[in-house]
Specification:
Layout (H helix, E strand, L loop, with lengths): L3 E4 L2 E4 L4 E7 L8 E7 L6 E6 L5 E3 L7 E6 L4 E6 L8 E8 L11 E2 L3 E6 L1
Parallel strand pairs: 2-11
Antiparallel strand pairs: 1-3, 3-8, 4-5, 4-9, 5-6, 7-8, 9-10, 9-11
Length: 121
């Protein structure tokens, strides 16, 4: 079992930055691949970024070059650094843990409760 708690969301102006954190419980965090997803009102949940247990990364095209995913296994935490934010990045952001690095939400077994990110124009 892995429990995930996101933090770091908030309101920011377009062009600004935020860093999201996802703290995980459990001693097996380092063996999981981790993903960030987001869901805007009226839209489906979409993939943002993922990082493997050995720090390989993959990004959605919409955030490539602006967002950076990283992890600190000693702190059981995964991060999402978001720069050059746009109004279309507004969504609830969720972190997830699973056995495979994937852009599909169905590959992840454990989910956090989400944190709201709002980007004003």
């Amino acid at each position: 079992q892995v429990q995930l708690v996101e933090s770091g969301g908030g309101l920011v102006q377009a062009g600004g930055s935020l860093r999201l954190s996802c703290a995980a419980s459990g001693r097996t965090f380092s063996s999981y691949d981790m993903g960030w997803f987001r869901q805007a009102p009226g839209k489906e949940r979409e993939f943002v970024a993922a990082i493997s247990f050995n720090s390989g990364t993959v990004y959605a095209d919409s955030v490539k070059g602006r967002f950076t995913i990283s992890r600190d296994n000693a702190k059981n935490t995964v991060y999402l650094q978001m720069n050059s934010l746009k109004p279309e990045d507004t969504a609830v952001y969720y972190c997830a843990a699973g056995p495979h690095l994937s852009s599909s939400w169905s590959a992840y077994h454990y989910w956090g409760q989400g944190t709201q990110v709002t980007v004003s124009s």
